[in-house]
From TrEMBL:
Keywords: ATP-binding, Nucleotide-binding, Transport. One of its GO terms (cellular component) is membrane. This is Lipopolysaccharide transport system ATP-binding protein. One of its GO terms (molecular function) is ATP hydrolysis activity. Belongs to the ABC transporter superfamily.
Length: 407
C-alpha cells in the first residue's frame, strides 16, 4: 500500500482512495459463518463483496478522495459514522471489502490511544520500534530521539514501561513520534482530545509547521479544530458521504444541523414553575426549523414562565452554549426587577450586536427561588439558533473592531 523508499514529487497525490467499502456483521456467530463462506468463495473465485447479507451493515460505503502534500482532509460525523473504520483501512489494520487504497511515502498514524505501542517495552524502545516501522534506520532515529523525548515532555519517564503511562502520556509520545519523524502522510484521530490544552496547542503549532510537507487526515468532533487546519472535508453518516469538497464551512453547518434538533431536556425541577415558551424574535431566516441571525445583529429572546406555586419573582440565569455544550456567554440582569402578572412571568432579553462567531448555539436556563436561592428549574438545549457569517472563525468570538493608523 505504500513505498517508503520512493522519491515523491511535491505535487504528487500521496493518498488515493477509490470506491472504498467495508461491511461488518452485528452478530459474532453469524460473522464467523460468513467469514468461513467468504474464505471458500475466495478460493473458488466468486465474490459478493457489494451485497449485504442478513445482519450486515456498511461501516464504510463507496468512499473516494485524493490528497496531496500540503492538504489536510477533515473527516467529521457522529459516533458510528464510519470515520475510525476508514482510518483503520487507510493504515492497513483492516482490509476493505471493495475498493482500493494507494498511499505513497511514510505514514504516521494516531488512530487509537496506545495503538502501535508494546506495553511491556519502555517509551524509548517504542520510539525505535515505531521509527523502524516507518522505515527509518537506527541512525536516523538516534538523530531525532532527544527531540521526540523533549516534545513529549517525558524525560523522567522515557525508560518506564508504556503500560504504566497515563492516557495523556501515551498521546504525547504517540504524537511526538508521528510528527517528529516527518511522515509524508499523517493520520490523526480524536486522540488529541485526551491531551491537556497546552500540549494540544503545541500539537497544532507542529501541524502548522509540517503541513506544507505532509498530507494530513484529521478526525475530530471539535469543529473549531477542524475549521482551523482543514482545506478539504468529508461529512460521513452511517458509512456514506453526505458532503465532500473544499467548502469546510458548509460541511460544518450540515454537521451542526444534524444535531440541532435533539429534544431539550429538563435537568431538574421541583414542579413549582414551568417554562411555557421561548422564542427568538425577528430571526433573519429559519432553516430546517432553526432560527438564524447574522453576525452583528441584535439577539432578542422572549420567555414565558408560569408559576405552579406561590414562589415570588424567581432569579433566572440565561446561558448561551456552543455545540460542544460549553458555556460561552451569560446574559447580565439589569437593575430593573421583573414582576409577575398573576402567576405568569413574561419578559424579553436582548443583546445588541451579537459578536459570537459563525455557528450553532443553544440556550440553557437556571431558575432560583426568590428568597431561598435554591434551584427550582434547570433546562438545557431550550432553543437552538444559528449565527451566520461568511467566514469560518476558529475563535468563539468575532469582535467588531476599528483599525486606524497610529502616529
Amino acid at each position: 500500500m505504500s513505498d517508503k523508499n520512493e522519491i515523491i514529487a511535491d505535487d504528487a497525490v500521496l493518498v488515493k482512495v477509490e470506491g472504498l467499502s467495508k461491511k461488518f456483521c452485528k452478530d459474532l456467530k453469524t460473522s464467523l459463518w460468513y467469514g468461513l463462506k467468504d474464505l471458500v468463495s475466495g478460493v473458488s473465485g466468486s465474490s459478493e463483496d457489494r451485497l449485504l447479507r442478513p445482519k450486515e451493515f456498511w461501516a464504510v460505503k463507496d468512499i473516494s478522495f485524493e490528497l496531496r502534500r500540503g492538504e489536510c482532509l477533515g473527516l467529521i460525523g457522529h459516533n458510528g459514522a464510519g470515520k475510525s473504520t476508514l482510518l483503520k483501512i487507510l493504515n492497513g489494520l483492516i482490509n476493505p471489502d471493495a475498493g482500493k487504497v494507494t498511499i505513497k511515502g511514510r505514514v504516521g498514524a494516531l488512530i487509537e490511544l496506545g495503538a502501535g505501542f508494546n506495553p511491556i517495552l519502555s517509551g524509548r524502545e517504542n520510539i525505535y520500534n515505531n521509527g523502524a516501522i516507518l522505515g527509518f534506520s537506527r541512525k536516523e532515529i538516534d538523530s531525532k530521539l532527544e527531540t521526540i523525548i523533549a516534545f513529549a515532555e517525558l524525560e523522567e519517564f522515557i525508560d518506564m514501561p508504556v503500560q504504566h503511562y497515563s492516557s495523556g502520556m501515551k498521546v504525547r509520545l504517540g504524537f511526538a513520534i508521528a510528527a517528529q519523524m516527518e511522515p509524508d502522510v499523517l493520520i490523526i484521530d480524536e486522540v488529541l482530545a485526551v491531551g491537556d490544552l497546552g500540549f494540544v496547542l503545541k500539537c497544532f503549532k507542529t501541524i502548522d509547521t509540517i503541513l506544507p510537507h505532509t498530507a494530513v487526515i484529521f478526525v475530530s468532533h471539535s469543529m473549531p479544530m477542524v475549521s482551523r487546519i482543514c482545506s478539504q472535508i468529508i461529512l460521513m453518516d452511517r458509512g456514506e458521504v453526505k458532503f465532500q469538497g473544499p467548502d469546510v464551512s458548509r460541511a460544518i453547518d450540515l454537521y451542526y444541523n444534524r444535531f440541532a434538533n435533539n429534544e431539550s431536556g429538563v435537568v431538574f425541577t421541583d414542579d413549582s414553575i414551568i417554562l411555557e415558551k421561548i422564542e427568538l424574535l425577528k430571526p433573519e431566516s429559519i432553516l430546517e426549523g432553526i432560527p438564524q441571525i447574522s453576525w452583528g445583529d441584535n439577539l432578542k429572546l422572549y420567555f414565558k414562565f408560569k408559576a405552579i406555586k406561590e414562589i415570588g419573582v424567581p432569579q433566572i440565569s440565561i446561558f448561551i452554549m456552543d455545540k460542544e455544550q460549553r458555556p460561552v456567554a451569560m446574559f447580565v440582569r439589569n437593575s430593573n426587577e421583573l414582576s409577575m402578572e398573576g402567576r405568569d412571568l413574561l419578559f424579553t432579553v436582548e443583546h445588541e450586536g451579537i459578536n459570537l462567531s459563525k455557528g450553532i448555539y443553544s440556550i440553557n436556563i437556571t431558575v432560583l427561588a426568590d428568597k431561598r436561592k435554591e434551584p427550582i428549574l434547570r433546562v438545557n438545549n431550550l432553543l437552538v439558533f444559528q449565527v451566520l457569517q461568511k467566514d469560518e472563525i476558529w475563535a468563539p468570538f468575532l469582535l467588531k473592531s476599528k483599525y486606524e493608523m497610529a502616529q
